[in-house]
Amino acid sequence: MSQTPSRADTAPLAIRRVDPIAVVLPLKKPMFMGGGQRFDHAQTLLVRIEAGNGLVGWGEASAAPTMTGDLLPGMVAAVSDHLGPLLVGRNALERARLGRELAVAIIGNTGAKAACDLALFDLAGRHLGVSIVELLGGAVRDSVLTMCLLGNPDIAQDVADANAYRAQGYDCFKLKVGVKRVEDEIEAAFAVRKAIGPDALLCADANMGMTFAHARRYVTGTVDAGLAFLEQPFRDYDLNATAALARVSPLPLCADESAHSLENIVEWRRAGAIGGANLKTIKLGGTAATLRTAVVADSLGLALVLASKIAESSIGTAGLVHLGYCMPNLDWGINPTSHYLAEDLVRAPLTPVDGNSARPDGPGLGIEIDESAVARFRARL
Ligand SMILES: [Mg+2]
Predict the structure, then answer these.
(1) Which of 154, 199, 216, 285 has the maximal Cβ count within 10 Å?
(2) Has residue 217 been placed in a domain?
(3) 3: Cα separation from own chain's centroid
(4) Contacts of residue 39, Cβ cutoff 8 Å, sequence gap at least 6
(5) Are residues 263 and 317 in the same domain?
(6) CA of 15 to the centre of ligand 1 (A)
(7) CA 349 – ligand 1 centroid, Å
(8) How far apart are CA 64 and CA 47, in angstroms?
């Protein structure tokens, strides 16, 4: 067998066109988060990159006004006016070089950059006949702990959901807190712990919705419920309050809205504020950037979560799952969100089985896009 790569592997893969597509997808039921946020629909950006040879790669990123500040019209404009023109005519196989150029082509807009980056991975993988896991250097684990969210207005419904998820094999649960009275939230932690048993991972995410008194009472009041961590009790900039809480908290704190960048994560770790971080490609600007951040976070001894925002379709989920298999120190699991959608954009939607998210088979993302569904849910901005 020849050791010389075929021309198909080494020839440039010219990018012919880059299209941003805004979609709005209905959720199965409303989600409630800290600070009184309610979500009925998912707003998400797709990026479709077409090569000169006709191959197409897809990427996705959620609009996240309270996390990245990205809004759908702005994400579309970032791709159509800045990122897309930079990519057209370039070699899609030079992802590292293109990633560096995308990072500085426009300030912020990490969601739009992440969608472009994922589409480049998908396109390169389809061209080379390998999965994104293989493009990232291979898997470091055989399964990924998959988290489900409990975000109902009342405790009985959280318990009912927990029981239903437990019956499906899930063993990683996140309570949305910072919404109700603190004593009700403590009661919910104990009720859910009772429902899921002593061994399942249980954590809580306040999405910046707590006061210091609320958070302090919550972390001390839930000690015997065995929470693994409390995520983002305070506003994204509030390092001092988070470090002060960490000094009295019996459980580690996790940064999410505060973890905008690798630099933030290093700073908050050095200040003693966090024991872990929730990584999202939409915050860090892409799959490659998130893996680099994960490697540094691992060297700092941080536990990690890898999550989508509420909610991405199975396009984003496939990217999340591939990355999750390659990230070190994914102690706190991954949080895909496509199974919260009433409608999806792929032929075979990805659904966790027995609490695990299997790696999609096939090159690139390993999924088949349903372009008629993409057209049906396309948003008129
Ligand atoms: Mg969070």
Answers:
(1) 285
(2) yes
(3) 39
(4) 27, 30, 31, 32, 33, 310, 311
(5) yes
(6) 35
(7) 24
(8) 16
Q: Does some domain include residue 75? A: yes
Is the full-model pTM beyond 0.85?
A: yes
Task: Express each pLDDT in 98-157 by its tens digit.
Answer: 999 999 999 999 999 999 999 999 999 999 999 999 999 999 999 999 999 998 889 999
Residue 147 sits in a domain whose CATH number is 3.20.20.120
- Ligand 1 centre distance from Cα of residue 279 (Å): 9
What is the per-residue pLDDT across 227-263, written as a single tens digit (0 to 9) for each? 999 999 999 999 999 999 999 999 999 999 999 999 9
CATH number at residue 77: 3.30.390.10
Predicted pLDDT of residue 33: 63
129 alpha carbon – ligand 1 mean position (Å): 35
φ, ψ (nearest 5 deg) of residue 36: 75, 20
Tell me the β-bridge partners of 62: 44
- Supply 18's token pair: 């880059």
Among candidate residues 254, 264, 281, the one with its CA nearest the CA of residue 336: 281
| Boundary residue ending a domain (129, 163, 182) | 129
Q: What does the radius of gyration of the chain's CA atoms come to, in whole angstroms?
A: 20
Ligand 1 center to 207 CA (angstroms): 6
Cα(256) to centroid(ligand 1), Å: 5
260 near 237, Cβ under 8 Å?
no
pLDDT tens column, 256-314: 999 999 999 999 999 999 999 999 999 999 999 999 999 999 999 999 999 999 899 99
What separation in Å is there between the alpha carbon of 277 and the centre of ligand 1?
9
Provide the 10 A C-beta neighbour count for residue 289: 22
Q: Quote the distance between the C-alpha of residue 52 and its chain's center.
A: 30
CA of 136 to the centre of ligand 1 (A): 25
Q: Are 334 and 358 in contact (CB under 8 A)?
A: no
**Cis check: omega of the bond before 167, within 30 degrees of 0:** no
185, 70: one domain? no
Both tokens of 330, joined, read 């994914």
With both helix axes pointing from N to C terminus, report the angle between 287-299 and 314-326 in degrees, rounded to the nearest 10. 30
Domain that holds residue 328: 135-366
Dist CA 328 CA 324 (whole Å): 8
